[in-house]
Amino acid sequence: MRVISQSAKKKRKRLIMDFIFIVVLIAFDQFTKYLAVFRLKDKPAFKIWDGVLELNYLENKGAAFGMLQNQGGFFIFVAVIVLGVIAYILYKTPNDGKYTPLHVLLSLIAAGAVGNMIDRIRLDYVVDFIYIILINFPIFNVADMYVSFSTVILVLALLFYYKERKIYMKILITGSNGMLANAIKEELKEEELICTDVQELDITNSE
Fold first, then answer.
1. Is 42 a catalytic residue?
2. What pTM does this model have?
């Protein structure tokens, strides 16, 4: 009982840290958008690096980088689904330190989704203002950066850093039952992985 209690406290602390991190990221995104409205709206673009990068105000009614215009309701629905999946994965993720990057990346994605969702609910459009002139890249914002960069890094992490990713995803998708626990333990033995990750997910053998 004592071990379970300590594990629960550790998981609770991790989730609280995730929540605080997400709130800080959202606050920063919203602050940059406030500055964009205050400093850039109805004004000439602000050049940071001539011919390369500038700040240019845009009201975007589409997805990230201006795609799929006038689909606000759909994007809000998708954002809610994504947030639900992220919350579930964060809750199920083991407390082992090697999963810290996963917590950080998922928190960045969640913050980006919420940041743009706030704009869509409050304004019916998303405030974009970062424009890479050099490659004529669509104007974007900080929340887009959260989602895009963290998604790319997450894919790379799943491919090269988390070697047990297939087993881990089985746990997340299928849930807890005795047969699955036994199958996972066998796979972990074959791949010479530590079994504590499975135990921390509270998977028990229901014979």
1. no
2. 0.73
